[in-house]
# Entry
Amino acid sequence: MKILGLDHVQLAYPRGRDDDARNFYLEVLGMTELPKPEAMRARGGMWLQAGPVQIHLGVEDDMRPSAKMHPALVVTELDAWQARLVAAGCEWRPADDIPGTRRAHTRDPFGNRIELIEAR
# Structure
């Protein structure tokens, strides 16, 4: 028995904020929206993908941002990501507590924490 990979990460966002979600995940992060299966569309939310990474966003009426739990995205050009996210008005918090690893944290418009780790 083995774990072979990760299919997706689910994050929540408040009802009525689809435009904010699309702006951040599609425009700022450059992800692509995937069609949800017909049976799931009535629930709201969206499925997003960039390369092999999928993030599923689910609508939650009492949504509370995830302060600790987070996806960690492996990226190239961390400095360019910093410039892009800061220009979009996003938080940028560098983290230097893992020797030899360049990484930082940002938050989506709903307060969910997202880590970016530069590929080695």
